[in-house]
Amino acid sequence: MKTLDNIALTLLIIGGLNWLLVGLFKFDLVAMSFGGQAAIISRIVYVLVGLSALYCIKLFAPINSAQYE
């Protein structure tokens, strides 16, 4: 499970950095790297990032149950 958590976190970081570049510079690194937004590999990356975000929703429970001082 830890490996899956690390993969999901890595994909979320890639997606977050991509959105940062889109927001600041109108530059889509994923699309540029894989041949445009419509390219199948780009679409796969976008889907994997989205699935990673859904998977990471489960992380709210441990964060909210932890006792922060």
Task: List the SSEs and their pairings.
Elements: H1 2-25, H2 29-34, H3 40-55, H4 60-65
Number of strands: 0
Spatial separation of the terminal alpha carbons: 28 Å
- Helical percentage: over 70%
Largest sheet: none
Low-confidence residue ranges: none
Q: What would the average pLDDT be, to the nearest integer?
A: 90
Q: How do the SSEs run, as a string of H and E?
A: HHHH
Question: Which overall shape is indicated by the principal axes computed on the Cα atoms?
Answer: elongated
Task: Please outline what is shown here.
The protein has helices spanning 2-25, 29-34, 40-55, 60-65.
Describe this structure in words.
It contains 4 helices and no strands. With 69 residues, the protein is mainly alpha-helical. Helix 1 packs across helix 3.
Key features of this structure:
mainly alpha, 69 residues
